[in-house]
Design brief:
alpha+beta; Muramoyl-pentapeptide Carboxypeptidase, domain 1; Glucose Permease (Domain IIA); 2 domains; nine-stranded antiparallel sheet; two-stranded antiparallel ribbon; 20% strand
Length: 286
Amino acid sequence: MALRAAIAAALCGCLVAPTIASGAGSVNVAALQVALSARGLYRGTIDGYAGPATAAAVRRLERRSRLAVDGVAGPRVRRALGRLGRHSLGSRTLRSGDVGWDVSALQFRLAWHGFPSGTFDGGFGPHLQAAVEGFQRWAGLAVDGVAGPATLASLRRHPIPSSPLRLARPVSASVGDGFGPRGNVFHPGWDFLANRGAAVFAAGSGTVAFAGYNSGGYGNLVVIHHSLGLSSWYAHLSRIGVRRHEHVSVGALIGRVGSTGNATGPHLHFELRVRGAAVSPATALG
């Protein structure tokens, strides 16, 4: 615990920003992990928590850079990290083509606010621009894909979104991967570890907004629109049992578990979105 506190206290700028919300790690620790990962020194999950693996990676960098070895990510460590160690979040306006510590921090913060942008890599590319635009649209800001003072202030001000409704579980199975960081990306839903062909049920009453094949990796997908801006997504299905515009009641059979799209085996990927922002299913299912 002392080692974790030392790293957290020594991260630069504002030092370590407060935890984004319950369950979310520090954006500065996440940025440190991204920079260490880029140098092949850290192979853990980009989760924003300064655990033993992060401290060990800092010490490896210190030895490689001939710095005093204490496992603390202070200013000298930040300089040794090069481009990915520069610029604290909020110190400049971020736009396409930028690279830096602040870009990594922005990627991490946006992901927890429901707008993941692919790999946490500290580079402001088209996926991050789309995520910024998505958040701006969600927050009622001018949509320009540039993370300036208004966008960053809105990210700080808004809590992590949650489901406005309680829902039923869509399948009788345990949960594997949950909502949050997974390796160097962000997993925006829950993976239910059900067998191929298991029945998938509507988690709530609503109208089917999409029922078909999604080429973006979800495979056979059903999307149901509920009230209060909430939608539920059911991905990788082997069979789809509903049609677009059909009204369904909670518990209605909507498909069968499969492994279509980007899936390594049978499971149900279940997502919830509130006005486009991915939210943790835990806030609806308990």
